[in-house]
Design a protein that fits this description.
The protein folds into two domains: 2-151, Ribosomal Protein S5, domain 2 (2-Layer Sandwich); 159-263, Alpha-Beta Plaits (2-Layer Sandwich), CATH 3.30.70.890. 28% of the residues lie in helices and 32% in strands. The protein is of the alpha+beta class and 274 residues long. The radius of gyration is 18 Å and the shape is globular. Strands 1, 2, 3, 4, 5, 6, 8 and 9 form an eight-stranded mixed sheet that branches. The chain has a four-stranded antiparallel sheet with strand order 10-11-7-12. The chain is built from eight helices and twelve strands. A hairpin with a 2-residue loop joins strand 8 (189-191) and strand 9 (194-198).
Length: 274
């Protein structure tokens, strides 16, 4: 079985100091974008899962292993799997690649083996707080610990330049730094009728001070406002497709891990092939 699992952009993100089952309560408007990983998964006769990534070394306990273990613990699923992941979504960049991978696994195996989907709360706690959003696959307001997903009807196109610096920021470290810092109210920017802000901006810049310089340089080059997605380090700007196509040529691609024109999408985890 093969599927594609898509990345996301947080258009806004508010973090609460309140902790619920070890996780922060959040409020965030998130949209899926047309950048994706590809996953191939097949049953194996082994009594352990074999999870292989095509690029960077990923910890043995990762979102995919957590997703598989959760499904087995909540159902009569007893088989193990050989899983191959082609990574196009940079890791530790605030794009939700690992969570999207896990959501794809949960959605695909739930359908194939006629399993009962674990609750969004169980998934958020045991796998990752972004995973319920990816299972839904639509632009959504996210509340609680990520377990409350309210799809929104964003009719208009949302086009972006996505820039991923070489710096990495783990979500765990970003939350820890957020807890350490006394947050001032961040400026809320507006693009058309969208409110753009991110409570992770100051923690991210504290962890990786070069991000502020990168943001300023990008804005100077393009005359567009850049914003942080998720816990970073990825940044994005908004505009119409024709404008962004011209602006992206002003950015030195060699200075970054990824620079790409992306857009908002809706998606569902449909099997590409069996």
């Amino acid at each position: 079985m093969k599927i594609n699992t898509y990345a996301k952009i947080n258009l806004n993100l508010k973090i609460s100091k309140d902790i619920d089952d070890g996780l922060h309560n959040i409020s965030s408007l998130i949209v899926p974008i047309d950048l994706y990983d590809s996953i191939e998964i097949n049953e194996t006769n082994n009594d352990v899962d074999n999870i292989r990534f095509d690029i960077e070394v990923i910890p043995k306990e990762n979102t995919i292993s957590k997703a598989l273990n959760l499904l087995r613990s909540k159902s009569n699923l007893s088989v193990f799997f050989d899983v191959k992941i082609q990574k196009n979504i940079p890791i530790e960049a605030g794009l939700g690649g690992g969570s999207s991978n896990a959501a794809g696994i949960i959605s695909m195996l739930t359908k194939k083996y006629n399993l009962t989907m674990p609750s969004y709360r169980e998934i958020a706690i045991n796998v990752g707080s972004d995973v319920p959003f990816f299972i839904t696959g639509k632009p959504s307001n996210i509340l609680g610990i990520g377990d409350i997903v309210d799809p929104v009807n964003l009719q208009k196109d949302i086009n972006m330049i996505l820039v991923v610096p070489n710096e990495k920021i783990s979500t765990r470290n970003a939350f820890s730094k957020f807890d350490e810092l006394s947050q001032d109210n961040l400026e809320i920017n507006e693009y058309e009728d969208l409110k753009i802000f991110n409570d992770f901006w100051i923690p991210a810049c504290t962890l990786e001070p070069n991000l502020l310089k990168i943001k300023n340089n990008l804005e100077s080059l393009t005359n567009l406002e850049f914003y942080l997605s998720g816990s970073g380090s990825s940044m994005f700007c908004l505009g119409d497709s024709e404008e962004l196509t011209k602006k992206i040529d002003l950015i030195d691609l060699n200075q970054f891990k990824l620079v790409k024109l992306v857009k908002k999408i809706d998606f569902s985890f449909e099997t590409i092939s069996d």
